[in-house]
Amino acid sequence: MSMEVTAWMSMHKAMTAQDERRPFSKATLRRIGGFARPRRRQLTWFLLLGVVTAVLAVATPVLAGRVVDAIVRGAAVHVVVGLAVLIAVIAVAEAGLGLVSRWLSATIGEGLILDLRTAVFDHVQRMPIAFFTRTRTGALVSRLNNDVIGAQRAFSNTLSGVVSNIVALLLTLAVMIRISWQITVLALLLLPLFVVPARRMGSRLARLEREAANHNAVMSTQMTERFSAPGATLVKLFGRPAHESAAFAVRARRVRDIGVRSAMVQWVFITALTLVSALALALVYGLGGFYALRGQLEPGAVVALALLLTRLYAPLTSLASARVEVMSALVSFERVFEVLDLEPLIADRADARHVPAGGVSVEFDDVSFSYPPADKVSLASLEEVAVLDTRGGVEILHGVSFRVEPGQLVALVGSSGAGKSTIAQLTARLYDVDTGAVRLAGIDVRDLTAGSIRATLGMVTQDGHLFHESIRANLLLALPEATEDELWDALRRARLADLVESLPDGLDTVVGERGYRLSGGERQRLTIARLLLARPRVVILDEATAHLDSTSEAVVQAALAEALTGRTAIVIAHRLSTIRSADLILVIEDGRVVERGTHTDLLSAGGRYGELYRTQFDQPTVAATTMATMAAAG
Questions:
Q1: What is the mean pLDDT of each run of 10 residues along the chain (634 residues)?
Q2: Exposed, middle or buried, 96 (CB in 10 Å: 0-12/13-18/19+)?
Q3: Class for the domain spanning 362-383+392-625
Q4: Euclidean distance between the first and the last CA atom of the chain, given in angstroms as a whole number
Q5: What are the structural domain ranges in the chain?
Q6: Reported CATH class of domain 3-340
Q7: Contact 4/315 with Cβ under 8 angstroms?
Q8: What's this model's pTM, rounded to 2 decimal places?
């Protein structure tokens, strides 16, 4: 490998590494050791192969020098041929060891990526919903990709590189000094001309690369948001395509300018290093030739020194950037450990029980609740803010108590932000209460396993979220072992079978991002089909028809009737007409139950429920009067 190429590789590492100057605790190193421990045998062989490869790399130039000496001395043909065969054997051995070393490197590195990714993914899935409402998805995905790969480099690249380069450097220096210490010292004097440009140019290019990466990240975020169905709709509705294009073009042009500057800096650097390389070789050949002509040095030694010179600068330049690589890898490990150190707020107790068989009641007993503050559920780096908000959560629910008997339907109504959806989330144990208790079948949900709660309870929300997968995959989320007949039965009961049958790919039709290839009513019916497939004993409907037109609502209501039959149900309703037949209606305001009773009782009482009902059902009249007034004015 030529000296300029070696330096270029060193500079590229400096460009891609992050030089974080901060101390690292022994605990971090111990945790890294914990991930490495299962692969300690592979790591040992990997390091040993690196040492052997370094020794063979030094042996080749020495043998090449001996070939030259044998030719000059007029040695027998078999001696020259023998040395040539030995060089060939070493080359074959180097190639073979290189393949084995690469296999070990890939096995260790990819295994570490697997362990770290699965650990982070599993851990993140246990985090509370508050974590996802605060965290930027892109920042979290970066931990699973960039940082995990950065941590992997510590084992597959940096560790072996440091060990093999130290061995190669010491052996090369020892052999060169033994051949001619004078030439070796002079060659070392040229080292600053070789390493310093790589370091300085590398730092300069690293700054340009980081700026380009930042611009690319912003453009990526802009594209992700604007190319989604809701984002594209928003841009078109407000007539902002030209503004969006201009903002994108500004950053794209800056990335182009950085690319041109980077290309020129790299070319100047390579040209300068080519010159330094030529000067170094000229020094060896000139001074070495002078000594050889005076009989102070063998001709073969001159050739060996020239070849060893490239083997000397290679490990030196690599070791010069090793600290940056190590620090970068440690930073990546710490960023991964940051996520793993976030404690999930919801966890099964050691003696957690299953929800008993049979009908299931739902009970809230003097429940008070506040959403957790940011410092309990998030990281500043994941929110992309300087400092997390450490203020305590504001209490949302205040002493809420009610009971839903098995098979009953209880409706929650009230103003937006009153706490209705919070009650639904606490029932599903997406959060834990601050005081009081939420019980399923008479057992505190904190004493039940999360798996049995999920199997007992099903929820349909107003957004009807679907994954960008097929209809089949979205249904199987509820019951992975469901048969084809069970899938179609659920679709028929959700009033969606005819639509799916009419699609060219049927159950294998991809619904698009968030299900946007389907209408709002169709998305809701598909989520209801998913619920029917799961067969929960408790159903929560969180404003499942809030954003539907009258026709879609009628069809969805028919599907919901199937979902609610024979089940304990909590329905959060915006349209009061949908909950007239509820066994019990709770009016929630400011996190408190202010009224309770049947539809008839609450209307007769003339309280808050009556006010909400009159406001909602008088609205068409008000709207018609307003339109008539506007028409007359026009």
A1: 50 49 63 80 86 85 87 85 91 90 83 83 83 75 75 66 80 87 80 64 68 72 72 73 84 86 77 73 84 86 84 71 68 80 85 91 94 76 63 82 92 89 91 93 93 89 81 90 91 87 89 78 85 88 67 68 80 78 91 92 89 73 40 42
A2: exposed
A3: alpha beta
A4: 84
A5: 3-340, 362-383+392-625
A6: mainly alpha
A7: no
A8: 0.67
